[in-house]
Q: What sequence folds into this?
């Protein structure tokens, strides 16, 4: 009985350790995402997205594939020139990480709520929804 108890504790500790590492890995991937997004790094963004990734832009009713998203980077590069992006994790649950992101563009700013699903070290899904037309709520 005592041996079974220790095996149970060891298995539970390993599971918790794996979940904590996975959550930390997701956070690192999301940090890399915003860094690459700020400089419109097409190669890094492509590496961070799974081949079957779906990017949902709630406010305009668009769902982009990885290819669609990467094809839009030239346009984004002009928009993000001189900008700053601040982000913080709001919550992590059920395999999703929800982030509050402030996009400080030179002529305006906007506050977004973005949800990421990460699997196998890549972003498989992202949903983006506007929260406010400025970042005062950040």
A:
């Amino acid at each position: 009985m005592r041996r079974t108890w220790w095996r149970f504790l060891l298995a539970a500790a390993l599971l918790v350790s794996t979940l904590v590492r996975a959550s930390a890995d997701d956070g690192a991937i999301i940090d890399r995402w915003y860094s690459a997004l700020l400089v419109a790094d097409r190669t890094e963004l492509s590496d961070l997205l799974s081949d079957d990734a779906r990017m949902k832009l709630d406010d305009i009713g668009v769902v982009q594939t990885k290819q669609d998203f990467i094809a839009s980077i030239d346009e984004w590069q002009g928009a993000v020139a001189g900008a700053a992006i601040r982000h913080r994790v709001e919550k992590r649950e059920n395999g999703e990480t929800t982030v509050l992101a402030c996009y400080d563009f030179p002529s305006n700013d906007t506050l977004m709520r973005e949800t990421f699903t990460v699997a196998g070290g890549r972003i498989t899904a992202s949903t983006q929804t506007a929260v406010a037309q400025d970042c005062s709520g950040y």
